[in-house]
Amino acid sequence: MTTVQSPPAPPTAIRPRVVARTGLYAVLAANVAVVLYFFFAAGFASNALIVTGRLAGLLGALLMAFQLLLVARLPWLDRRIGMDRLTSWHRWTGFSVLWALLAHAVFITFGYAESSSLDPVNQLIDLAETVEGVLRAVVALGIIIVIGAVSARFARRRLAYETWHFIHLYTYVAVVLAFTHQVAVGTSFTSSSAATAYWYGVWGVALASVFTGRLVLPLWRNWRHQFRVEAVVPESHNVVSIYITGRDLDRLPARAGQFFLWRFLTKDRWWQANPFSLSAAPDGSRLRLTAKAAGDGSAALRHLEPGTRVFAEGPYGAFTALHRTRPEAVLIAGGVGVTPIRALLEELHGHAVVIYRVASDQDAVLYGELVELAQAKGAELHLVTGPVTPDKLAPAELTRLVPDITDRDVFLCGPPPMMNAVIGSLREAGVPKEQVHFERFSLAG
């Protein structure tokens, strides 16, 4: 297979993830400073509770806009930070939004109640009935509380992704209601034409980012490339490879190690999106994914017909050679996590050591291809088999297989328990954190 080779970043280069993360922090800090400036410029109410509530509301609105940016799936951010980390930040930012807006509602309500004869509950009802935009704000807060509840870890684990995602879409309803509330009664929003322009700009950028990254770009790419199933090839009794073809695939900015959200447009699967990594480096003419039958959806992939239309969102992910810091690498795979590892081996320059951890030889998917690639590229390949205990990827074992592992980049992909154990082993072996690259493939964080 012919692949497009990309040289690794020089070891002295500033890491792309550091650049992107620092840029996000700088953007957020600069906007906090602007919000504080307009807040103080608008003047204070006589009641300290109301002042505190207004500030909490402004910061909550800014965090809500920032939260949208984190999940807009903008290619520049995604390739440098990764969807898993962006989604995690989005989740924690969401809880910050929830607490900020709760504080806004509580402080404002108690502040007005302090200067009236009403108790806080009746004060809130009076505000909702008499002040334009407050009722919309109450509804928005209720939606955010529900979304926060279903996003808590104990609840999220009990919901199907499609159910969780459908509930989460109401976030956009909350955003619109919160914005209209801010327009109607926001003192800082209406204090000057500059403040009004600023807030319209913040919300405009946030919503435009989501619209572009989540809708326009996927629709454009699928219209342009016209993805279809070319062939379905069984790799074992429960693993299948699917070859995807299309138009102008040489212009698709996909790299080894990345993944797509695949929708196969059959009558019983069109509504399901599954994240599968590329199992071969893109060659400009076809894409390949390899999936294990872990559920009804992935098991049905074996029965896809050639010619089936495919809607693919992506490429996504920062698990690529873009983040290399050393000229040599170690690639560690567990189970079907070998798919992005196999693709990376195809693209990487420099000496590589591949460690493939499986329960038995029969579970070593794509092992024949790994052998051929390792021979062609002068890489070392170690197949590690056996039960989970004793740990065959413990620090001592890793340093035995790769004595100079602390001087190499380590790319890791496999089941979560295995990844957690290996990350701990790498830490004990003295591998610097910035040389360890992994990505947790999860749509909902």
From TrEMBL:
Topology versus the membrane: Multi-pass membrane protein
Gene Ontology molecular function: 2 iron, 2 sulfur cluster binding; flavin adenine dinucleotide binding; metal ion binding; oxidoreductase activity
GO cellular component terms, A-Z: membrane
Reported cofactor(s): FAD
CDD domains in the cross-refs: FNR_like_3
Sequence intervals crossing the membrane: 24-45, 51-71, 92-113, 133-155, 167-185, 197-217
Record keywords, A-Z: 2Fe-2S, FAD, Flavoprotein, Iron, Iron-sulfur, Membrane, Metal-binding, Oxidoreductase, Transmembrane, Transmembrane helix
Record domain FAD-binding FR-type: where: 222-322
Domain of life: Bacteria
Gene3D superfamilies: Nucleotide-binding domain of ferredoxin-NADP reductase (FNR) module, Translation factors
Subcellular localization(s) per the UniProt record: Membrane
Protein name: Ferredoxin reductase family protein
UniProt organism field: Streptomyces chartreusis
